[in-house]
Amino acid sequence: MTDELSTPESTPPAVTGIADPAPLGLAAFALTTFLLSAKNAGWTHGTDAWLGYAFAYGGLCQLLAGMWEFRNRNVFGSTAFATYGGFWIGLGLYALLVAPKASAAQVSNDEAWILLAFAIFNLYMLLWSTQVNGAVAAVFLTLQITEIVLVVANFSGNEQILHVGGYIGVLTAACAWYTSAAGVINGMTGNAVLRVGSPMRLGNGSLGRTGAALTGTR
Description:
By secondary structure, the protein is mainly alpha-helical. The chain has helices at 22-40, 50-71, 75-98, 104-129, 134-156, 159-189. The two termini are 14 Å apart. Keywords: Membrane, Transmembrane, Transmembrane helix.
């Protein structure tokens, strides 16, 4: 895997000893986000289907992807995946251990503050995601909007705003799934079968990695 953002899109990543973990991390994030967002949108009528996947897929698998990104010396990927893996595990633990003992108003207030804290983290990751590529930036942009809308929904107790947050969360999941799919097929072929866009430039350089990082080739 290379470290230059100017790597030609036809050049496959250099061998590092492990496969690119980013498509796994993105897929794990996408599926768990989709399940919770479908619930927030009012589409589901069952129990908390997202909860088990918050531990096993969005949590554990995404956390592992973050640890493998450390091996690849990708500070952006490792920080993003490990943080959101921890987010899902933490949210799952909260839903199991704390929420059942609290009132609905207390749970809404707690969730608002949790989401606000992650929105702060996501804001600077959104800024730096512009240095990776357009697809990754789209994931962080839609996620930022989702978190802000859900913060407002939980602080206000407005169910309609919660549904809107669910719709945007589904869009976030779709962006993450597309970026994951691009990472899989582009990594398999060494060519830009699915486009992910180019990074924004900061002066003569940029922050981040090439499309092999987090996404596959551009």
